[in-house]
Structure prediction request, 403 residues.
Amino acid sequence: MALRVKQLSTLVGSCVLHLMVGSGNTLANLNTYMTSYLRQKASRDANFGESVWYTPVGVTAFTLFTIISGFIVNKMGTRVTCLLAAVVFSGSMALTSLALDNSFIMVLMSYALMAQIGNGLIYSSVIVNCIKWFPNNKGLVAGVITGINAFSSFIFTQIQTFYLNPNNVKPNSDGYFDETEMLSKVPKLFNLLSGIYAVMGLIGVCLIFDSEEPRPNHTVQTDPNDNPISTSMNFDDNEILVTTTTHSVFQTQYSIRHAINTRFFTMLWFTFAFSTQSVYFINSMIKAFGQSYINDDHYLSVILAFSFVANGIGGVFWGKVLDLLKFRDTIIVINGILATSTFSLIISSFFCQKLFFAIWDFVLFFAGVGVFASYLPEVVRKFGDTNAITIYGLIHTGPVSTK
Prediction:
């Protein structure tokens, strides 16, 4: 009974923490407000062209600290790691409220760099910890948490829009806002978000428990196809050797060095690098794209909000699909949908603009989350959970290298 309570508490706490860091995906909504404020208060030269830097800087920080989080978790545990991350993430919003009056570079450092450091420390840590608590439902658990991460954007997009622009003030012909009263609330919004995130972080950290599963040390030997053929395991200084041609009694735990030397890691690295290109672009620029031919900020905000609902549903859906199908089949279907939808997105600017924009937007967000719901469980399945966080972080260097 106590074990079941800890399982459910950890899952709920993990969802709360992802509800917090998932709000970072509202960049597509906040971008227009932040850039407009910078043009009015800091530099008239601020523009959407500069905004493309949010994604590569954020992804780089996220990737680096996902790798680092693996070492911190192994040394200090998931709860301590998440507490540190919550402090960093909440603090980044408070600093952004100050940075907005200075320069784009300062905002880039606080909103993109610092916030994604916090996100990187939390993201994989809590998912892998939950997978340890629910070993028979890896894909579903990862999908639920990833879905909650996406659903966060639905909630916070509404908070942002109705706090900043309740009267649906229209942007000018260039897509920027000029209303002084509305823009004056932008720094206050970040102070509000900082307080909300601090409370959410505290609740989430209190609810999670580190997995109590005993963790033997493994040394793995593999055949030319990267399949384990023998495993040397250490339990309290007593070493035993298990030899197998198929499945070991214990899950194989790869060292970081051994994992990155496998062909499977290389395959994951390249496919993840290319699978995420459209996802990152859509997340940051879809609203700006819509504003180029739809002059209705409230409509775009509502569509963007519901696209995050589609994102959340997609996380659960693709997680379940991964548990039922092979990883390869799942990712082929996801990439097929993403490629077709991204290529044909331009159609929405010519016909039935509002309707088609909504349809394409929902499809892209529904499919895009499947990439993130699929890769981390596969890393755990193939390489074991001991170093899965760091190995996943190294796979995440793929998108960084293509920016």
